[in-house]
Amino acid sequence: MSLIRSNIKLAHAFSLVDVVVLATLGATVYGLISIGSEWSGELRPTVEINLSPWALPRYVLFSLFRGFAAYGLSLLFTLIYGRVA
């Protein structure tokens, strides 16, 4: 009789959280396998970089704006997180 009760407890051991975790794990493994299959080809850059000295100021501005955007997002996150804490 105790063997039957242990089987019943095992059936109720899984919850919705377990199903979500297993589904997420399965999706992650599937995603990694599908991305890994793309790496079998030859690597070809798709962006052409202009090596002219006249293009350098434009690339410097792109880098500067990227840095300002990262700083702004970091500051915004810090202020919101600090306020919540």
Secondary structure topology:
Layout: H1 2-11, H2 16-38, H3 56-84
Global geometry: flat
Roughly how many Å is the radius of gyration?
Answer: 26 Å
N-to-C terminal Cα separation, in Å?
Answer: 53 Å
| Unreliable residue stretches | none
| Average pLDDT figure | 85
Strand content is under 5%
Overall number of strands: 0
Largest sheet: none
Order of helices and strands: HHH
Specify the helix fraction band.
over 70%
Structural class: mainly alpha
- The number of helical segments is 3
Tags for this model:
single chain, 85 residues, mainly alpha, 3 helices
Short description:
The chain is an all-alpha fold. It has 3 helices and no strands.
3D architecture notes:
The mean pLDDT is 85. The chain has helices at 2-11, 16-38, 56-84. By secondary structure, it is mainly alpha-helical. The chain is built from 3 helices and no strands. It is 73% helix and 0% strand.
